[in-house]
Amino acid sequence: MAYLRTHTLPRHLLLAVLAALLLLLLTYLLPPYRNYQLATAGAYVCATAGLTVLVGLTGQLSLGHGALMATGAYAYALVSDKLVDGGTTGIPLLVVSLVAAILATMVVGFVLGLAGARLHGPYLAGLTLTLVIVVPAITTTFAGTLGGDQGLSVTVDPPPVGLGAAFPFERWQAWITLTAAILTVFVLANVVHGRPGRQMRAIRDDEVAARLSGIDVARTKVGAFVLSAATAGLGGGLLAVLTQSVAPGAFSLTFSLFLLMAVVIGGLGSLAGAVWGAILIVVLPDLADSLAEAMPVSSNLAERLDGNLAIGVFGLIVIGVMLAVPGGIQGLLVALVRRLRGRRPAASGPADVGPAGPAAPGPGVDADRPDASGPSGPEPAADPARPRTPSSGSPSTTTE
Amino acid sequence: MPDALLSVRGLTAGYGAAPVLQEVDLEVAPGSIAAVVGANGAGKTTLLRALCGVVGATAGEVRMDGTDLRGVRTQDMVRHGIAHVPEGRGVITELTVEENLRLGHSWRRDKADGRKATAEVFELFEPLARRRKSAGHQLSGGERQMLAVGRALVARPRLLLLDEPSLGLAPKVTAQIMALLRRLRDDTGLTVLLVEQNVRSALSIADTGVVLSLGRVVAATDAATLAADEDLRHTYLGF
After folding, report:
1. A145 is a domain residue
2. How far is B123 from chain A (nearest CA, A)?
3. What is the ipTM of this complex?
4. Chain A positions in Cβ-Cβ contact with residue B170 (cut-off 8 Å)
5. Per the CB < 8 Å rule, is B142 touching A367?
6. Could you list the residue range(s) of the whole structural domain that residue A190 is in?
7. According to a count of CB atoms within 10 Å of the terminal CB, is the N or C end of chain A lower?
8. Treating both helix axes as pointing N-terminal to C-terminal, what angle do A32-52 and A65-85 enclose, rounded to 10 degrees?
9. What's the total number of domains in chain B?
């Protein structure tokens, strides 16, 4: 285990393989509708994981990730349409269209990132917000190509024949999106734990200090935006595969806010948190609807609540999480696991402790340290912005 | 006096219309420690920021080892051998001690030497080595200052700019930091430009001293002379 603690790449690889096996098993256990939900969560994970890196690590607030997903979805629809006309089918159709979705969104992300590197906080939020609002206008303006309000339909081929004639389509969809989700989280985990991740966090914490350390702040910020856009584009392309259609209504402002709220509730800056968030986006509207049905209200009110209650519930949860557990779901889990293990508040995350064991605060030059009394203090609050290991894979890996 | 490592001529800089620094001249000889002292608002921090391009200069010239630094971006200063420990230290609080140090040499291509430089910093600052896995926000003020200096040193600078290293530190800790700067200068030939309000401790280790007042240089001589000049002390430094 010591080897895996110090070597991040093999550790992430192992977690990815474990997550893949577990999810594979799950797709055989779940009924078709649940598989479809799982597939949807997989698509969302791509977007939320990229968003949490952007917002949580570089501190660039994007309210427009729904628009980036829309870009990916439309790019997928347009390119796959051309490919189908050209006779491409099956997995090549899928892969090439997804790559096109990623590339197209990266271009949009690059332009946004250039602006974002010059804008701070609310101004960037405002800019990205504008993007979400113009999506319907763009689809209407170019109705000839983008299909207006109706959107476009997307051809998705049935599962490869090698899987058998009776292979459920939903399971095939789940395989597609979950593969993409695992790849996304794997790549992002390595970015986050490596040099770019450190540079991003340095920029969020202290831009001047980062520049004085030789970090090109503008380039790193643009890079983070492009990376985040790439994963959002992938997520959008996958949504196109799932719904077999693309329409502006699916990428509303509400949806963009959902993505952001999901990332915050899951634990900002944490990839595992992004997974929790994606699951919430799928599960919560369902729960809210059942809640609305169970409530003894007039049919008139119930009708108005339908579909809207989820937003309210989401908002309430965000407020609750901010007040009670700023580290989000993931922060809470990490704290719980540590308490169960009876671990003393170590210097940092459990997996970061080297072979020498928890670093003992030595005497040294710490006369003015406020907590010089030693390690008896309370558990340091889980830092929301630090993606703690054990993370990065699937929910199942949080117990290590 | 040998050719200056850092030479500043007629530097005028500030925020907006009113310049904070006015026609500042300054020379720092290689392998020496220069202390810039002065009261609050004298322009000490602005001077360091202007040297690194964090604050734009409106006039004047800054040369590092003969190279004109005009137009060099802040993030490239470190490539010219200038490391700057900013006001408030600039420790990235959510990164660990080790990660902060890695940040300090992340711009370099020579990874092996970066690791070697990190090991040297841990040797130099033993308390940091013990806390290498601690997050920045868990460190004491003295440890943070060590980390900030350490992060500057892993870039293997020729010139170290320090903005108020004594700020918020116990006198004993300040003395340790100052002694360490002196040792670095003696052992490795590091050149240091130090900005301090703590005049006594700064002049105690410096070779030369510069007094800034309201953005202008009012005295520049060797540190011992400056420390002994009572009139100057009374007029500009308030003790």
Report:
1. yes
2. 13
3. 0.89
4. 367-368
5. yes
6. 2-252
7. N
8. 120
9. 1
HSE of B111, CA atoms in CB hemisphere, 13 A? 1
Interfacial B residues in 181-210 facing A (CB < 8 Å): none
pLDDT for B23-67, tens place per residue? 999 999 999 999 999 888 888 999 999 999 999 888 999 999 989
CATH number at residue B50: 3.40.50.300
The two tokens of residue A310 are 């989820």
A32 lies in some domain: yes
Cβ-defined contact of B103 to A199 (cutoff 8 Å): yes
The verdict on residue B22 lying in a domain is: yes
Residues of A in contact with B99 (CB under 8 A): 198
What would the pLDDT profile of B188-207 be if each residue is shown by its tens digit? 999 999 999 888 889 999 99
Cα Rg for chain A, rounded, in angstroms?
A: 22
CA pair distance B206, B35, nearest whole angstrom: 6
Residue B172 domain-assigned (yes or no):
no
Structure tokens at B203: 């002049």
Nearest to B75 among A206, A216, A385 (CB): A216
Distances (CA, A) of A302 to A205, A254, A291, A312, A317: 46, 20, 10, 14, 21
Model pLDDT for residues A209-220, shown as the tens digit of each residue: 999 999 999 999
With a CB-CB cutoff of 8 Å, which residues 188-207 of chain A face chain B? 195, 198-199, 201-202, 205-206
Instruction: List Cβ neighbours of B16 (8 Å cut-off, separation of 6 or more).
Output: none
Number of H helices, E strands in chain A: 16, 2
Distance from CA of B198 to the nearest CA of A (A): 18
Q: What is the pLDDT of residue A113?
A: 92
Domain for residue B53, yes or no?
Answer: yes
B110 part of a folded domain: no
DSSP 8-state symbol, B7: E
Give the number of other Cβ atoms within 10 Å of residue A144's Cβ.
7
Residue A26 lies in a domain: yes
- Phi/psi at A120 (nearest 5 deg)? -120, 150
Domain that holds residue B1: 1-81+190-239
Interface size, chain A vs chain B, as Cβ–Cβ contacts under 8 Å: 136
Q: What is the pTM of this model?
A: 0.83
Domain count for chain A, please give it: 1
